[in-house]
Design a protein that fits this description.
Pfam families: CopC (PF04234). It is a single chain. The chain contains 2 helices and 8 strands, in the order αββββββββα. The chain is α+β, with helices and mostly antiparallel strands. The protein has 2 domains: 8-36 and 158-187; 41-152, Immunoglobulin-like.
């Protein structure tokens, strides 16, 4: 009778190991998911690559989540094709919408460089451009960088996706091996 109890004990350990492997896999996915949750630009007016007849009084950027409204957390730089600033005051944040007043006139490519703090607390930034007037006569412009060190998070999404897929695959492979071992012991 002691052999039956002794033999059941390794099965319990195997089951516990399988359960532990599943918990570790879920934890890995849970840890990787928040890093992937940065808010992103989902719309802009004027839109990326748009052609407008005249410089609008403002640009409106729409993000996938509510941005954090902290001092100096939101910056927008708008420049004309020659690099002159078109920014006309402080940006206004309202939930998922960021409005930047504009001033002056422009002809040619207008560059918009933005930096915000995502709802998960991480800074995200990006840039886009649109054209004012006839694009055939638009002069080439220069970009004006934001003050301070660059805070580009663009491209990191792909890295997190790869890490997430690798973690899930590794967890799944580990669970499959543990289940196969447990079945082999039961059959053997």
């Amino acid at each position: 009778m002691s052999q039956g109890i002794h033999k059941a004990h390794p099965r319990r350990r195997s089951g516990i190991r399988s359960l532990l492997a599943v918990i570790v896999a879920i934890a890995l996915v849970g840890v990787a998911s928040p890093a992937f949750a940065h808010d992103e630009l989902v719309g802009a007016a004027p839109a990326t690559g748009a052609q407008v007849d005249a410089l609008p009084p403002e640009i409106v950027l729409t993000f996938s989540g509510v941005l954090l409204d902290e001092p100096a957390a939101t910056e927008v730089v708008v420049t004309d094709a020659g690099g002159a600033s078109l920014t006309g005051g402080d940006p206004v944040l309202d939930g998922t919408k960021l409005t930047q007043p504009l001033t002056g006139t422009a002809s040619g490519v207008v560059s918009v460089i933005w930096r915000v703090v995502s709802s998960d607390g991480h800074p995200v930034s990006g840039e886009y451009s649109f054209t004012v007037g006839d694009p055939a006569v638009a002069p080439l412009g220069t970009e004006t960088p934001l003050p301070g060190p660059p805070m580009s998070d663009t491209g990191m999404g792909a890295v997190w996706i790869v890490l997430l897929v690798a973690a899930v695959a590794l967890g799944g492979a580990l669970v499959a091996v543990l289940i196969a071992r447990a079945r082999g012991r039961r059959e053997g």
